[in-house]
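Below is a typical protein record.
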Amino acid sequence: MRSFGELEARVMTSLWEADRPATVHEVVADLGERKAVAYTTVITVLERLRNKGWVSRSREGRSYRYATTATEHEYSAHLMSQVLEEAPDRSAALLSFAGQLEASELRALLDALGVESEGDGGSRE
């Protein structure tokens, strides 16, 4: 799967920022604050995102509420994973990416992996 299109990204951002399931009307209103989008267009985008597995819907009266099935962080990780899968040399691509990290990001990554950084008196494993 490739990254979201422009309108898909705007809809997902609206849902992530809402931090709760939202109706089509709520998404349209939120998007309209930035640039007007037709109600039917938003329904189409939400249904495409649902078919792709990025949003779920639940019935509420005569309408639906839509919620994201992944956080923004999970989506970013998914994109990074896709890029690595497509790389001819996954390890080289990963090492090149890691080399571009700022010190604080590298420390966070090492902490997540349970590796002590050199500045902590430990060795990098």
User: Anything to note?
Assistant: The first helix runs from residue 6 to 18. The helical segments are 6-18, 24-32, 39-51, 72-86, 90-99, 103-113. The chain has a mean pLDDT of 90.
